[in-house]
Amino acid sequence: MQTEFEPRNPNYESVVRDSFSRQPYMADIGARIDLIEPGICELSLETRPGLTQQHGFFHGGLVAALADSAAGYACYSLYPPNSTVLTTEFKVSFLNPAQGGRLKAKGRVVKAGKTLFVCQADAYAEEAGKTSHCLTGLFTMMCLMGKSDALNLGREAVST
Amino acid sequence: MQTEFEPRNPNYESVVRDSFSRQPYMADIGARIDLIEPGICELSLETRPGLTQQHGFFHGGLVAALADSAAGYACYSLYPPNSTVLTTEFKVSFLNPAQGGRLKAKGRVVKAGKTLFVCQADAYAEEAGKTSHCLTGLFTMMCLMGKSDALNLGREAVST
Amino acid sequence: MQTEFEPRNPNYESVVRDSFSRQPYMADIGARIDLIEPGICELSLETRPGLTQQHGFFHGGLVAALADSAAGYACYSLYPPNSTVLTTEFKVSFLNPAQGGRLKAKGRVVKAGKTLFVCQADAYAEEAGKTSHCLTGLFTMMCLMGKSDALNLGREAVST
Amino acid sequence: MQTEFEPRNPNYESVVRDSFSRQPYMADIGARIDLIEPGICELSLETRPGLTQQHGFFHGGLVAALADSAAGYACYSLYPPNSTVLTTEFKVSFLNPAQGGRLKAKGRVVKAGKTLFVCQADAYAEEAGKTSHCLTGLFTMMCLMGKSDALNLGREAVST
After folding, report:
1. pLDDT computed for residue D62 by the predictor
2. Do C28 and D50 touch (CB under 8 A)?
3. What is the CATH number of domain B12-147?
4. Looking at chain C, which residue has its C-alpha nearest residue A116?
5. Residue C101, φ and ψ in degrees, nearest 5
6. Residues of A with Cβ-Cβ distance to B62 under 8 angstroms
7. CATH assignment of A12-158?
8. Do the Cβ atoms of C47 and C117 come closer than 8 Å?
9. In this predicted model, which residue has the larger pLDDT, D1 or C83?
10. What integer pLDDT is reported at residue B112 of this predicted model?
11. Cβ–Cβ < 8 Å for B55, B126
C-alpha cells in the first residue's frame, strides 16, 4: 500500500514490531500486527473467553484499547530513530456492537507534526463473513525524542 | 456518601453488581467494585502480568477501559428497572503514566438526561502509598429502556 | 455527488436551507451553504474583522462552530419530516493554523442510527489558491422526533 | 481565590488581559474577563442578536468557543514569559440548552505539563436568576516557548 508519508527511520517496520512485542497487554488480549506501512497500522485479535461485556460483545474499552495501539503504531512508524510514543488523549465513538469472532483495528495518521501526531483509527468486527464498523476515533500521540521505548523508562522521562 | 441523585430503582446496587459480575472482561483484568452510590461507581484492580505496555505502565487502553466501566455503572445506578446501558462515546486525556501496583477508576454522573447520561471518570495509579492522577475523561451513556442487560441481546436490540 | 444514504425526507434540501436561514449566528459570521446532499453538508465563509484570534488566524472556536453546523446539517439532511437536530457532543483536533481569507467546513455522516447520528467534519482554510486542512472532528447529533425546528421550542422540549 | 498552581510569570494577569484584548473574535462576541487566577479563567458575555441558533439558544459552537478561550487563558496564566498558547484539541458535551441572557465559561487547569496542559471548562447560561450548566469539556493546550503571542506569527511558527 502506498501512503503519503515518508518514514524518517528506514527500519520503521522492525522498530514497530519490536515495540509491539514488548507490550504484555497486546499479548494478553491476543493482538497481532496485520500490516505496517508508513503512517498506517492494522491490528487484529480473535475472540476468547474474557474479552466480552455483559451482552457478549467485545468490551468497548477493549475495542478502544486495540484502536489506541493501532493509532500509536501508525504514528510510531513515522518517528525518527531514538524516540518513543505516548498517547496523550483520544476520543472514540461507538457505531455498532462489536459482535463477532474477530476484531480488527486500523490506524491512519492524519497529521504528522513536530511533536504531536493526530491519527484516525477505526475498528471492525467480523462474523460469518460480515464486517461491521464498530468504532471510529481520533487519537493524539506525542513523539518523545531521545527517550528509550524500553522498560524502566521512569515516570519523569515520559512527562508531557 | 451522599449524592445529588435519586435512584429510580431501589435495587440499584444489586442490579449493578449483577451486571458487573456478568462482564467477563472485568473478571479477566481482575477488576472489582469498591463503591456504588447513586450516580457514582468506583472500581479497582491490582497489577498482574499482561496488563502493561512497553514501558511497564498500565496500558492506556486498559486504563480507559476501567474508567469506561466505572462511568457506565455510575450511570446504570440511576437507570429505571428493565433497562440496560451502552457507551455511545468517550474521550480521555492521559495526565500521568499509570505506574504502580494498583489502578482505581472513579465515575461520577454529571448530567442524567432522559436517554443520554454524561459522566466524568478519573483514574489513579497507586504505588508505595503515593497516588497519581493518570486519566480524566468524559463519557456518554445511553439508557436503553425495555432491553435486557443479559446475554444474547442481539445486534438490533442495541441499535442507537 | 452520490452518497450511500437514502434521505427519509424528499424535501431534505429545502428543510436544511430553511433551518440554516433561521440561525442568526450563521448569518453573523457570514456562513453560507455550498453543498447539501444526503448525509453531506459543506459550508464556507469569507474572513472579516472580528473572526480572528490574537495571531490573526480564524479563532479555533469559530472554526469548530462552522464544523459543528456542517456536521449538524449533514445529519439533518437524513432526518424524517417533523424532527429537529441537536448536537450532543463533539471533539475536534486542530491540525494547522486556520490562516487565510476563506474557511470551509465539510460534514459527512458516518453512522445514521435511530436516535444518534455520528458525523465526521473537517475544516480547511484557503489562501492564495492554497488549501490547508486545519481541523478534523467527530460529532454526535440527536434526532428529536416530533419537535419543531423553529424558535420558542422551550427548554424542556430539547431534553436529551 | 487560592489555587494549587504557582504562576511562572509574576505578570500573568496583565499578560492574559493583553492577549485577550488582541483577540478580535472575543470582542466581536462581546466576551469579557471576569476572573484570572493562576490556572483559572472565567469569561462571560451578554446575548445580542447574532449569537443564537434556530431555537433561540446560544449556538453550541459559540458556547464551545467561549469555553475554549476560558480554557486557553486558564493555561496561559501558568506559562513562563515569552511564550504563547495554542489549542491542540478539545471535546465538549452539551448538557442543557444554553438559554438565557448571559453566558459564562469557567476554565480550570487539571494538569500543567512541560509542553501540554489539560484543562476542564464548563459553561453556564443565566436567565432570571437561574443558572443552568450547559457544557462541560476537556481541552489540551500547547505551550509554545519563545514564540510571540502577537500578530503575524506566521504559519510555521505555530507548528505543533
Report:
1. 96
2. yes
3. 3.10.129.10
4. C95
5. -85, -15
6. 25, 61, 65
7. 3.10.129.10
8. no
9. C83
10. 97
11. no
* Closest by Cβ to C138, choosing from A93, A96, A140: A93
- Using CB atoms within 10 A of its CB, is residue A123 exposed (0-12), middle (13-18) or buried (19+)? buried
* CA distance, residue C117 to nearest chain A CA (Å): 9
Query: Which chain B residues have a beta carbon less than 8 Å from that of C142?
Result: 115-116
In this complex, do B56 and A151 lie within 8 Å of one another by their Cβ atoms?
yes
pLDDT mean over D65-83: 96
- Residue C1: its pLDDT value, please? 45
pLDDT of residue C2: 47
Residues of D whose CB is below 8 A from B110:
93, 95, 133, 136
Residues D65-92, buried b or exposed e (16+ Cβ, 10 A)?
bbbbbbbbbbbbbbbeeebbbbbbbbbb
Q: Which of A88, A115, A159 is the closest to D140 by Cβ?
A: A88
Confidence at residue C158, expressed as pLDDT on a 0 to 100 scale: 62
> Searching chain C, which residue's CA lies closest to the CA of residue D29?
C50
Test C60 with D53 for CB contact under 8 angstroms: no
Q: Give residue-wise pLDDT tens across range A10-58.
A: 999 999 999 999 999 999 999 999 999 999 999 999 999 899 988 889 9
Look-up: residue for cell 435495587? Answer: B11
CA–CA gap between residue C14 and residue C139 (Å, rounded): 23
Query: How far is the C-alpha of B126 from the C-alpha of B139, rounded, in Å?
Result: 23
Separation of alpha carbons C98 and B71, rounded Å: 35
Query: Which of residues A97 and B54 earns the better pLDDT score?
Result: A97
Nearest Cα to Cα of residue B107 among B143, B142, B145, B66: B66
Contacts of D118 (CB under 8 A, 6+ apart): A89, B93, B95, B136, D109, D110, D111, D138, D139, D140, D141
Look up cell 486542512; give the residue. Answer: C133
Question: Residue D151: its pLDDT value, please?
Answer: 63
* Binding partners of A (≥3 Cβ pairs within 8 A): B, C, D
Please give the interface size between B and D, counted as residue pairs whose CB atoms are below 8 Å apart: 36
Distance CA A93, CA A136 (A): 5
Residue B109 CA to residue D122 CA, distance in Å, equals: 15
Phi, psi of A157 (to 5 degrees): -60, -25
Nearest to A11 by CA among A32, A36, A41: A36
Q: State pLDDT tens for residues D7-42.
A: 999 999 999 999 999 999 999 999 999 999 999 999
Instruction: Return the partners of chain B (3 or more C-beta pairs < 8 Å).
Output: A, C, D
C-alpha cell at B117: 447520561
CATH fold of the domain at D12-146: Thiol Ester Dehydrase; Chain A (3.10.129)
Name the residue facing C140 among B88, B113, B159 (closest C-beta): B88
What percent of chain B clears pLDDT 70, i.e. is strictly above it?
A: 92
Spatial distance between the Cα atoms of B160 and B103, rounded to a whole number of angstroms: 31
- Nearest-CA distance from B154 to chain A in Å? 8
CB–CB contacts below 8 A, A to C = 36
